[in-house]
Amino acid sequence: MMHAAGYFLSMFIGFSLSLIGGGGSILTIPVLVYFFRIDPVLATTYSLFIVGLTAIAGSVNYYRMNNIDYATVFQFGVPSVMVLLIMRKWLLPLIPSTIFQFHSLVLSKSMLILVIFSATMLLAGFSMVRKKKYPTSVENMSNSRLVLQGSITGALTGFIGIGGGFIIVPSLVLFAGLPMKKAIGTSLVIITANCLVGVLGDLRTVESLDLPFLATFALFAILGIVAGTWAIRFIPDKQLKPAFGWIILSLSIIMLIKTVMSAEH
Questions:
Q1: pLDDT per residue over 191-244, tens digit each?
Q2: Which residues contact 157 (CB under 8 A, 6 or more apart)?
Q3: pLDDT tens digits, 89-102
Q4: Cβ neighbours of residue 54 under 8 Å, at least 6 residues apart?
Q5: More confident residue, 238 or 104
Q6: Angle at alpha carbon of residue 179, lines to 160 and 166, rounded to 5°
Q7: How far is residue 22's CA from residue 167's CA, in Å, rounded to a whole number?
Q8: Which structural domain range is residue 180 located in?
Q9: Taking the model in full, what pTM does it have?
Q10: In angstroms, how far apart are the furthest CA atoms of the chain?
Q11: Averaged over 40-63, what is the pLDDT?
Q12: Number of folded domains in the chain?
């Protein structure tokens, strides 16, 4: 029953990726951890693999619609990929399995990932719930801020195993002056590159991946992204984002509570 619900949610992950260029990937970690009982550290690699495959499918659809800005892909994507590789290959392995222990209170590496992930979900959900309009103008272009946002996205992607679309899309609109649909298509290409580098940056874990499971999960997510690409013509973005934001906020609160409670045992 839990697995069936998990596969259903994987379709929602793909559906959201195609509609808003991100957000859906932030659901992958909790789905893998709580519906399939996968260790949070391993789930970060699983998430990058799944989101990367799903984003490739979405990128193809947006390529056909001519909604990808390749110059921005390079400008935002290069610093993002470089920071991600450093985080995934060198910094993340340095963190010990048990970070802190005081009597029955234990902070493990897995818990730290979940805590930071939950906090990121809170911020992402809040930003989606806010009724904020992003102006789309070339005057908003800021190369330095675009590079900075790319670096931040790479660090988050490498540490907690997300695609980073909820950061990428508003950054591309605000600092690259891209219209919303082109920002979504460009975001999917950057997410694909981030996830590919993130998985390859941890080759020892890649060897132990459950490929049949990942293929099945990714297939459902790709079905969702195909459905979302079709539905984007009919669903207003202003209605979708707040609804998705409330879902993320709810999940983040539940995850924080569960993580804190488990730390006390």
A1: 999 888 888 776 666 677 788 999 999 999 999 988 887 887 776 656 666 766
A2: 48, 80, 84, 87, 163, 164, 194, 195, 198
A3: 888 889 998 898 88
A4: 13, 14, 17, 24, 25, 218, 221, 222, 224, 225
A5: 104
A6: 15
A7: 8
A8: 2-263
A9: 0.79
A10: 58
A11: 87
A12: 1
> What is the C-alpha to C-alpha distance for residues 168 and 164, in angstroms, rounded to an integer?
6
The angle, 0 to 180 degrees and rounded to 10, between the axes of the packed helices 165-175 and 180-200 is 130
Residues 32/117, Cβ–Cβ less than 8 Å: no
Per-residue H/E/C for the chain:
CHHHHHHHHHHHHHHHHHHHCCCHHHHHHHHHHHHCCCCHHHHHHHHHHHHHHHHHHHHHHHHHCCCCCHHHHHHHHHHHHHHHHHHHHHHHHHCCCEEEEECCEEEEHHHHHHHHHHHHHHHHHHHHHCCCCCCCCHHHCCHHHHHHHHHHHHHHHHHHCCCCHHHHHHHHHHHCCCCHHHHHHHHHHHHHHHHHHHHHCCHHHHCCCCHHHHHHHHHHHHHHHHHHHHHCCCCCHHHHHHHHHHHHHHHHHHHHHHHHHHHCC
